[in-house]
Specification:
The protein is an alpha+beta fold and 309 residues long. Helices cover 52% and strands 15% of the residues. It contains 10 helices and 8 strands. It has a 4-stranded antiparallel β-sheet. A hairpin with a 2-residue loop joins strand 3 and strand 4.
Length: 309
């Protein structure tokens, strides 16, 4: 069954399927929201005597987020309120038809309840873990790893063929200015900046490029280097120990890391204490799989040589 939100004055209309998302929203509303002062949580509508508060609209907005992203605040408020009114009416009709006694409904309701309980507990654990001491320790540990790395500041000239690369090499040997020649000959998007790549670490470039760049001394120019992008002539400008960004600059990422780690550790602890029986595979295989489970790793950061800011 499909429930539609009434069109606004802008002609906007949302169609929301009564699926797991609808069930999730329904359960969340049944759980209720914190009691607030009447003036900060006004009653916006009544449906057969049942009140819909501003807090109900706020909660629904959180659940329906992506569907409302393009709306202005007034349209969003109107559409969500209309949806909640329809939901109250339809859910009452569903009660009259004893839908809650349907086995499929019971299973979905149980699933959504478990999910809400899990989400709320993990959110609480994550929030409790965010302390100044915890964040500073993560920052200090990461800074030590960062400052132990070397960075190279280099320029390059990129051409499609080895023959063109050798011609560029000959021009440089005759005394041509590297930056000016890069502007003229390089096919790289950063050619207009004289082929300047800024500072980068080994992992930020493809291996063939990094190997040569980190072996060169400042001021030296490489022989032609072949990569998947073409042929490069590389000039190293300077080298330095990598600098760690300021704490405030990476604070949001640190908070996210501390939160996720605390949540993952908490789940791992509970899982160790729980009796888990896997009926779909032998006990040894199930235990081995659980031991090997780990959070997803970030995508490979290696990239084509490009200007670094």
């Amino acid at each position: 069954m499909t429930v539609s939100l009434p069109a606004t004055t802008h002609g906007l209309r949302i169609r929301l399927a009564s699926s797991a998302l609808g069930s999730c929203l329904a359960v969340a509303l049944l759980v209720g929201t914190p009691v607030r002062a009447q003036d900060s949580n006004p009653v916006l509508a009544k449906v057969n005597g049942s009140e819909i508060h501003q807090s109900d609209v706020n909660l629904a907005e959180e659940e329906l987020g992506p569907s409302l992203a393009q709306m202005d605040p007034a349209a969003k408020q109107e559409n969500v309120l209309s949806f909640l009114i329809d939901m109250k009416i339809v859910s009452k009709a569903a009660e009259g038809k004893k839908i809650e006694n349907n086995e499929d409904f019971k299973k979905r309701l149980a699933f959504v309840r478990d999910r809400l309980l899990m989400d709320n507990l993990l959110a609480s654990e994550g929030k409790a873990a965010i302390t100044d001491d915890a964040m500073k320790k993560v920052y200090e540990d990461a800074s030590k790893q960062i400052t132990s790395e070397q960075e190279v500041h280099a320029r390059h000239i990129l051409v499609p063929t080895e023959e063109e690369a050798k011609k560029v090499e000959d021009e440089l040997k005759k005394g041509a200015d590297f930056a000016e020649l890069a502007k003229k000959e390089s096919k790289d998007p950063g050619a207009s900046d004289g082929g300047d790549l800024g500072f980068f670490t080994k992992e930020q470039m493809v291996p063939e490029f990094s190997k040569v760049a980190f072996e060169l001394e400042p001021g030296k120019i490489s022989d032609p280097v072949k990569t998947q992008f073409g042929w490069h002539i590389i000039k190293v400008e300077e080298k330095r120990a990598r600098k760690a960004p300021g704490f405030d600059q990476v604070k949001p990422q640190i908070e996210q890391f501390v939160t996720r780690k605390a949540q993952a550790d908490y789940v791992a602890k509970l899982r160790q204490e729980a009796k888990v029986e896997r009926m779909d595979k032998p006990a040894d295989a199930a235990a081995s799989g659980a031991d090997k489970a780990s959070p997803a790793k970030p995508a490979d950061s290696k990239m084509a040589p490009a200007k670094k800011k």
